[in-house]
Specification:
Blueprint (H helix, E strand, L loop, with lengths): L1 H16 L10 E6 L3 H15 L2 E6 L2 H10 L8 E3 L3 H9 L16 H9 L5 E13 H7 L19 E4 L5 H14 L1 H12 L2 E5 L4 H7 L5 E5 H9 L4 E4 L7 E8 L6 H11 L2 H9 L5 E2 L23 H4 L2 H16 L4
Length: about 350
């Protein structure tokens, strides 16, 4: 009897020491993801590991995802839209392209994230925040003898002609945030005069918002208009890149999370939202070398993350500039009055 008891206890000890097996398959989830690919993959892999839900991820800029969700409204292909600037999420909410869902984990979030949910009628929610600014290649600036840009007006210096990249606001939420920011800082008339002058110094309008900072980091352009946390990612990777926040004031994003209206895997989508709002899930951003400020109050803010309290942030009007009509109007105006100009 004793021999069999010891054998049984040995089996239990081996089982306890073994790593937990992956959860059994529990359905599927299709995610449109508007953060950098490394974070998209980390989120998909960890949620699948914990729940057994098979996750398929498509990574695109937030402007692109908005257009795709709208085009697929009659036959949705995605269940969840993860990340990307909040303005297109708010527009999608206003147009009924996303699903009302009030997660039980809202109480764990910072007030700014909860306000995003309230403004959208609980069709989206904030998952991170980040400030807009400039990225610049420190080696190129030194070689050219140019001081780093510290203000919006600095970008109009002759030394920066042909040396600046910005994303196209029709595909990039980062670039739309930039346009809405200068409108709020300068007033619309002066802002579009400024954008017309800036256009002459742009060497490329990239498809994605991270394009300019990656180009600056690799010496393909001198300056980029970027979110500052994306500059940190490149600096941590060892590239000669620095950042600054405009002295006149700058806008910021509330990166958001939405369930797509008509989602085929609605239960899994709600389960994903609940999980994504927790502190452990939000820590995957920093582990993926992404340095936004997480929305969960208990989530650890990465040491490298930009200090938002030290940046001159404007009182960005998310309700106005995330509204469907206003967003379409500004994008159309930029296309007609700025992007059509010669360079």
């Amino acid at each position: 009897m004793t021999r069999y008891l010891w054998r049984y206890l040995a089996i239990l000890a081996v089982a306890a020491a073994a790593p937990p097996a992956p959860a059994a398959a529990q359905g599927a989830l299709n995610v449109y993801c508007s953060v950098q690919l490394e974070w998209c993959q980390a989120v998909a892999n960890e949620f699948a590991r914990q729940t057994g839900v098979r996750v398929a991820v498509t990574q695109k800029g937030s402007g692109e995802v908005f257009a795709q969700v709208k085009a697929e409204a009659a036959n949705p292909k995605a269940d969840v839209w993860f990340g990307g600037t909040g303005d297109p999420h708010l527009q999608a909410a206003e147009e009924g392209l996303t699903q009302v869902y009030r997660s039980p984990n809202l109480g764990q979030l910072h007030p700014w994230a909860v306000r995003q949910a309230e403004q959208s009628g609980y069709r989206t929610v904030g998952i991170y925040a980040g400030a807009l600014g400039f990225s610049f290649n420190t080696e190129l600036l030194k070689k050219k003898g140019i001081a780093p840009p510290r203000c919006w007006v600095d970008l109009l210096q002759p030394a920066f002609k042909g040396e600046i990249q910005m994303a196209n606001p029709n595909s990039s939420g980062t670039a739309y945030t930039a346009i809405a920011t200068v409108v709020q800082v300068m007033g619309e008339a002066k802002a579009f005069e400024y954008l017309a002058k800036l256009h002459a110094s742009i060497n490329q309008y990239t498809k994605s918002g991270v394009g300019p900072v990656k180009a600056a980091a690799r010496g393909e352009t001198t300056v980029g208009i970027s979110f500052i946390h994306d500059v940190v990612t490149e600096a941590v990777a060892g590239f000669p890149v620095g950042s600054s926040a405009p002295c006149e004031g700058t806008g910021y994003e509330i990166g958001s999370l939405s369930v797509v209206a008509g989602a085929r895997n609605l239960d899994a989508a709600k389960r994903f939202v609940d999980w994504a709002l927790t502190a452990p899930a939000q820590s995957l951003g920093a582990k993926s070398k992404q340095f936004q400020v997480p929305s969960n109050r208990q989530a650890e803010v990465p040491r490298e993350a930009p200090k938002l309290a030290e940046i001159k942030l404007i009182d960005y009007d998310f309700k106005k500039y995330g509204a469907s009509g206003e967003r379409r109007r500004l994008l159309d105006k930029w296309e007609k009055e700025i992007n059509s100009l010669p360079r």
